[in-house]
Each structure stands twice: as structure tokens, then as C-alpha cells.
């Protein structure tokens, strides 16, 4: 990975850590561009969102079903 791109990702770490629904439209676009160019990052981001969605669910049966699938 080029050093400029690594620096960009490092500075943009807050975008990756913030929940998608809390991002502004501009930040969502910037995040989508980042995820477009890095498959591993895209997978990790989607797993993070999936994990938080399950954890914040009030339906215990849904949580168990999601973790066991």
C-alpha cells in the first residue's frame, strides 16, 4: 500500500470507527470510497456494523440466531 494511502487511512480512522447511521452524508461518501479500495477493510467494517446491530438488538432469540448462523 502506498505511504500516502496509509496516511489517509490513518487520519480517517474515526470514519471507520463511527457507526454508519451517525455519519454525515459527506462522511458516508468518504467512507464508501475508502471501503471501495480495500477489501479487508470493507469486510472488517461490515462485520463491525453487523456485530453492533446484533448486540444492540432487544430480541434475545434474534441475537442467538445471528451468532449461531
Features:
69 residues; mainly alpha
**Low-pLDDT regions:** none
% residues in beta strands = under 5%
Fraction of residues in H or I helices: over 70%
User: How many H/I helices?
Assistant: 5
User: Roughly how many Å apart are the termini?
Assistant: 34 Å
Shape: elongated
Please provide the ordered H/E string of secondary-structure elements.
HHHHH
Task: Explain how this protein is built.
The chain is mostly helical and 69 residues long. Helices cover 77% and strands 0% of the residues. It contains five helices and no strands. It has helices spanning 3-11, 13-17, 25-37, 39-55, 60-68. Helix 3 (25-37) packs across helix 4 (39-55). The longest helix has 17 residues, at 39-55. The protein is elongated and about 45 Å long. The termini are far apart. The model has no long low-confidence stretch (mean pLDDT 84).
